[in-house]
Amino acid sequence: MLVHPQFDPVAIHLGSFGIHWYGLMYLLGFLAFIWLGKKRLRALNMHGWDEKFLDDLLFYGVLGVVLGGRLGEVLFYNPGYYFSHPFKILAVWEGGMSFHGGFLGVLFAMAIFARKRQIVWLQLMDFIAPLVPVGLGAGRIGNFINAELWGRPTDGWWGMIFPNVDSIPRHPSQLYEFALEGVALFTLLWLFSNKPRPIGAVSGLFLIGYGSFRFIGEFARTPDDGIFGLMTFGISMGQWLSLPMVLAGIVMMAWAFRKKNLPGL
User: Fold this and answer.
1) Domain of 99?
2) Considering the domain boundaries, does residue 182 fall inside one?
3) CA–CA distance from 188 to each of 128, 137, 145, 214 (Å)?
4) pLDDT digits 0-9 by tens, 87-128
5) What 8-state DSSP symbol labels residue 222?
6) What's the domain count of the chain?
7) Residue 48 domain-assigned?
8) Buried b (16+ CB within 10 A) or exposed e, 180-205
9) CA 252 – CA 258 distance, rounded (Å)
């Protein structure tokens, strides 16, 4: 039976100050965004879309991810705790970021960016969609290092004991989600976006892919402790939030290929 190694969540100790692994995972995701974004810019050769454009885009994206992700965690999953400990809302380095909240934050931030640059918002979303999964995967590795978002009990040989939780072998669900939301989703989107697609198609595939992979991964993950456990039909809050993404992605891809004369990426 495997036992979680109980990593120190602080990667680098600098006196009373520490750099957390979770923060480093976010930094890795942002660096991957820049590196992969440069590769896409060279391949697409879009007028006015240069490295300065990419830097500004990342700035808006970081604001959307951090503000939206934290607000999503507070409002969707654990409002009672954070409203009782309001200063903890700012402690993003300790973990606790909602993807669905971050996703909404990025949509809003990209709408502002697209309007400022006078470009098509959906075309911008098609550009960034393949750049996102590496950051999602890095975040799941951060969850694993922090021994948080652990899995449901299992009797499989791969079951892992999380000593900070109990002595019951559990699915290492953080690694499942890393494989699905990080590796598999990146591969799917990167290969799909390597050929010209009608506008909205890449974004639609992202919605379908992430929503489906998250829905599947949640079956192995212990429901979040906040105001919800398993809900109607025995599925979790994360699964309920993922279903509209899948449905929206199907509609978007159907629309995109029906209107395939529109310029895409």
Assistant:
1) 13-258
2) yes
3) 14, 14, 26, 15
4) 777 766 665 677 778 888 999 999 999 999 999 999 999 999
5) P
6) 1
7) yes
8) bbbeebbebbbebbeeebbbbbbbbb
9) 10
Domain contains 184: yes
Q: How would you classify the pairing of strands 2-3 and 160-161? A: parallel
Confirm whether 185 is domain-assigned.
yes
Count the Cβ atoms, other than its own, within 10 Å of residue 61.
Answer: 22
Signed CA dihedral, 153, 221, 137, 28: sign only: negative
Dihedral angle sign, alpha carbons of residues 240, 62, 213, 248: positive
pTM: 0.87
Closest CA to 218 of 231, 202, 205: 231
Degrees to nearest 5, angle at CA 49 with 194 and 61: 85
pLDDT by residue (tens digit) across 137-146?
A: 999 999 999 9
What is the number of alpha carbons within 13 Å of residue 7 lying toward its C-beta?
Answer: 15
Q: Are 131 and 106 within 8 A, CB to CB?
A: no
* The CA-based dihedral angle spanning residues 141, 147, 153, 158, taken in that order and rounded to the nearest 10 degrees: 50
DSSP string, 91-104: -GGG----HHHHHH
